[in-house]
Structures are given as C-alpha cells and as structure tokens.
C-alpha cells in the first residue's frame, strides 16, 4: 500500500497528508525539506546529530519534531542500530540531506528495510507544480554538474537566461534549495539546478512514474573527487552520469573530456534529445567552440553545417577578467544551455558584459612590487587546481588541506612540476610533500606546520614573499578541502587576502565589498562550502 501511495505522490496537489517522513540532517537543505513536507500536511520527524539553534527553534513552529543524537556509530544490520525514536516512527519515506553517504548506518537501514529513500531534489521534482507558468506548466529545469565549474556555469546560465527575457533562478548546490524556488509564489520559467554527485546518487535510486526530466543537462568534466563518499571512482562517475537521465532537448558535454561524451552516449534520454559538444577548439556542426579568438555556436541555427553564430570574443572576455581557459569553457557550456532555450546570441553577449566571478575563484587580490597575488581557494580538488595552474604557469603555488581520498601525484607531476615553488599547508601535508619528492624534486617546497589557524596565512605570505620576484604570481589553489584548518574555502581565501594586505600594507576588500562593487548590488549570502562542492 505504501508503494502505491508513493507512486501517486507526483504533484503538490496530491494527498500527502499524514505521510510519515523522516528527514536526515538539519542544515539549509534539511530545513527546506521539513518546511515543505509540513506545509503539505505530512508527519515529519527530523533526525540529526546536531541542530542549528535557529532551525531547531523553528521546527515546532512549522509542525515538525526533532531528535538529536549520535547516528553514525552503529552497525546498521544489528537490532536497535538506529535511534528507537526513528524505528518507532516507522517512516514511509526517508529524505536524506546530501551529506549522508551510501554507507551511513541510517541510509543502509532504510534501504535494507525497503523504506523509500529520497533526496531533496526528488521531492522538489514531485511538487514542482505548486506554482505554474501562464500556460499551466511548471518551470523547465536545466541541470548542471561536473567535478569543477558547476557554480560558475550555473550562475552564467541563469544570467544568460535572464538577459534573454526569461524568469530564471540558480538553485540547488549553489546555495538556494530547489524546494525554496519551487515554492516561490512569484514563479519561474526556468530553474538552473546545480547538482552535486551526492544529490545525483540519491536521484539514481528512484523508480518514479514521473522521473525528473530536464530540458537540458551538462556534465562539465570528470576527475577524481569525493572518493571517500562514493567508495570508488566508478561510483562517483555513475552518480554524475545520472544528470543526463530523461533529458528532453540538449545533452551538453565536454569534447575535451571523453568521459562526459560516454555518459551522453550511454544515457537513457527522451527521443529527439540532441548531443551538443563544447570545447576550446574549432566546433563541428552541433558544437560550440572557438574560431580565431571568437566564441561561436554551430549547434542552434538552421544552417549549422555551413555557418556559425558569434557569441563574444576572447579579447572581450579578457577585458572582463573571464579569459582563463577553464572559464571560457564554462561560458561555452552555459551558452549551449541558454541557446537550447532560444536565448539570442546578443543577449548572451550582454549577460557576459555584466558578469563577475564569485570571490575566491581565480581572483586577483593584490598587485605589489611586480608580484600578483591570486586567490583561487575554491579550487578544492586537483582538477580545479590544474585549471588554475594552467592559467598561471610558473606560479608560487600554495597547496594542501584535506585531500578527500584523492591522490595528488598526477597534478604535481603535471602542472605542479612547473611551479616556481610550493608552499604546503594543511593536515595532509605529508602526502603533498611526498608527491613533490617523487614527481617534481626540483621544485622548492616549504611546509607550514605547527601553527594555529590564525597564523597559517601570515606564514604562507611570508614564505611566498621570500620567493616571488617581479613578474611572478603567488597562487592559492589548494587542490583540497579546507575544513582541517579553516571554517570554509571562503574563510581560507579571506585569511589569505588579509595576510597579503597586512604584508603589503594596502586595503583588500572583503567578499561583500568585492561582490557589491562588481554587480552594483549587495552581495548574496554565502554559498555552500567544500562539503557540497561535489
């Protein structure tokens, strides 16, 4: 009976009343799930190890219950392995926040007991018709994932869509829960949904009568990351590949990354969906690329075999601080998604003229005495750091942190071997230092050890200043998560900028000042951190 009922729950207007739902986790995502379900009339128990004080205060106000206590110390197969309150509640559905891995005891318990296991995105898709467009249909969804570049591409796509006259919002892993956008009474034409591999893993579990079916989707790239969560690279890849499931119009892939093309070739899509490639080379028909410094579209025009549409130029992007190769690739991917929704090339160009990268993404924080100091603290894995090092070859490289189970050796042997020097930070310094000893023994390596968080970046800047000379770049591109020493990648970047300011004696603006000056408006609230950058 429970299974039949769940299969009928594919609309906001379905009968959700009394459905017993356990919500795992009480962060931004967990609260959005609890808030949505109580509004629908479900019986909601939130289970979490620790609760934000504000969210905990609000739960009884919205009509949900809260249990807090240890969740990950039990054997999920043993009797009494989950809290008695959860077992006695006998949930019909468990909705897990993205941080709960496939091997978490409560997740294993739910699966082994045949309890439906959803993520927040599955719930959002089922209730997407709460607010509809003038024609009575809910907003189209565009899905974006990849090891790196997700947030930038999500923002770019939403900006292009808005410039093209569509009501669009960047949501999901970028910071605003999808459920909040679905319930926004103003409504949208398009939701641009950034998805982590964690969220995609949960989507891959579903057997819904109306599965998520995006208008367009892209996997930007694929490299080792979050192996500790997925258990293997194969598991990580399989999760990412779900982004293309049931795509209706455009499966956008990176021609420079064969893994993304293979995902498209293997995907079960809606008949008529097209494969659209992008890279920095000359595009073929159905591709976007670069011809003699001009970004062009050869996919979304009638005469694509003989002509192309100009979108912008590399020179113009350079004047906007957007010409790093990996950023150009992100622009092409976003343009493909926007063009699939009929956004004209002129609107894409206009959108780019007003676009600024978020703080901590290849951001120049200072130039002094001929040395350029660059904050790319958002480079939380080797793939992202490789892009930064490609943009600044020969830099003094600040590297290290939590490696998340990823081997950094390939990065050190490749891009890292050209560094002028390496300054190694973080809890897993030994692995980084050993990689340099094996693969780049001629690069001078300096360790920052035995210092408190408050002093790490001061020591980094001191060491970098002793190495860098006129014309050099000091690049913070850690290739690792930040939580061993810092509150977030943003905190890591802010501390780097502050230490540079202290060293050279000039004012370096904070994140809010930089974002406001770039956009003309106050900065948005902080985006999610390393743990969500999956």
Kindly describe this structure.
The chain is an alpha/beta fold and 534 residues long. Strands 7-8-6-9-10-11-12-13-14 form a nine-stranded mixed sheet, with helices on both faces. A six-stranded mixed sheet has the order 15-16-20-17-18-19, sandwiched between helices. Helix 7 crosses helix 15 and helix 19 (453-467) packs across helix 20 (489-504). The chain starts with a helix and ends in a 15-residue tail after the last helix.
In short:
This protein is of the alpha/beta class and 534 residues long.
Which characteristics define this entry?
534 residues, disordered C terminus, alpha/beta, six-stranded mixed sheet, nine-stranded mixed sheet, 21 helices, 20 strands, single chain
């Amino acid at each position: 009976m429970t299974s039949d009922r769940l299969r009928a729950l594919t609309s906001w207007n379905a009968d959700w009343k009394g459905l017993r739902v356990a919500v795992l986790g009480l962060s931004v995502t967990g609260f959005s799930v609890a808030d949505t379900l109580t509004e629908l009339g479900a019986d909601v128990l939130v289970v979490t190890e620790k609760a934000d004080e504000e969210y905990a205060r609000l739960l009884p106000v919205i009509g949900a219950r809260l249990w807090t206590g240890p969740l990950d110390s039990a054997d999920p197969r043993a009797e009494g392995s989950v809290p008695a309150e959860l077992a006695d509640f006998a949930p019909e559905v468990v909705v897990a926040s993205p941080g709960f891995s496939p091997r978490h005891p409560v997740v294993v318990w739910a699966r082994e007991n045949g309890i439906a296991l959803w993520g927040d995105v599955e719930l959002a898709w089922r209730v997407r018709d709460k607010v509809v467009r003038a024609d009575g249909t809910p907003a189209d969804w565009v899905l974006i994932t990849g090891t790196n570049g997700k947030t930038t591409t999500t923002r770019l796509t939403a900006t292009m869509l808005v410039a093209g006259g569509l009501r669009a919002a960047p949501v999901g892993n970028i910071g605003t829960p999808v459920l909040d956008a679905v319930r926004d009474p103003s409504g949208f034409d398009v939701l641009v949904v950034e998805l982590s591999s964690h969220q995609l893993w949960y989507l891959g579990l579903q057997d819904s009568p109306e599965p998520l079916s995006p208008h367009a989707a892209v996997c930007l790239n694929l490299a080792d990351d979050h192996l500790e969560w997925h258990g293997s690279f194969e598991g990580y890849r399989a999760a990412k590949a779900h982004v293309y499931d049931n795509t209706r119009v455009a499966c956008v892939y990176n021609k420079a990354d064969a893994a993304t093309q293979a995902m498209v070739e293997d995907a079960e899509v809606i008949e008529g969906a097209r494969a659209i490639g992008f890279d920095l080379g000359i595009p073929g028909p159905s591709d976007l690329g670069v011809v003699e410094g001009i970004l062009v579209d050869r996919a979304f025009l009638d005469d694509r075999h003989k002509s192309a549409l100009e979108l912008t130029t590399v020179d113009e992007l350079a004047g906007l601080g957007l010409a790093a190769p990996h950023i150009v690739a992100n622009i092409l991917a976003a343009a493909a998604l926007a063009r699939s929704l009929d956004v004209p090339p002129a609107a894409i160009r206009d959108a780019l003229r007003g676009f600024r990268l978020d703080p901590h993404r290849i951001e120049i924080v200072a130039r002094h005495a001929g040395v350029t100091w660059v904050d790319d603290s958002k480079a939380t894995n080797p793939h992202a750091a490789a892009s930064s090092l490609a943009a600044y070859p020969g830099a003094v490289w600040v590297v290290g942190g939590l490696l998340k189970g990823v081997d950094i050796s390939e990065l050190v042997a490749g891009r890292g071997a050209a560094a002028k020097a390496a300054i190694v930070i973080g809890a897993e310094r030994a692995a980084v230092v050993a990689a340099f000893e094996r693969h780049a023994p001629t690069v001078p390596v300096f360790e920052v050890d035995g210092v408190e968080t408050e002093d790490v970046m001061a020591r980094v800047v001191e060491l970098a200043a002793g190495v860098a000379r006129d014309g050099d770049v000091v690049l913070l591109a850690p290739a690792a998560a930040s939580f061993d020493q810092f509150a977030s990648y943003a905190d890591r970047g802010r501390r780097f900028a502050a230490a540079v300011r202290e060293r050279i004696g000039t004012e370096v603006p904070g994140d809010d000042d930089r974002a406001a000056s770039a956009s003309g408006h106050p900065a948005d609230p902080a985006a999610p951190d390393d743990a969500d950058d999956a």
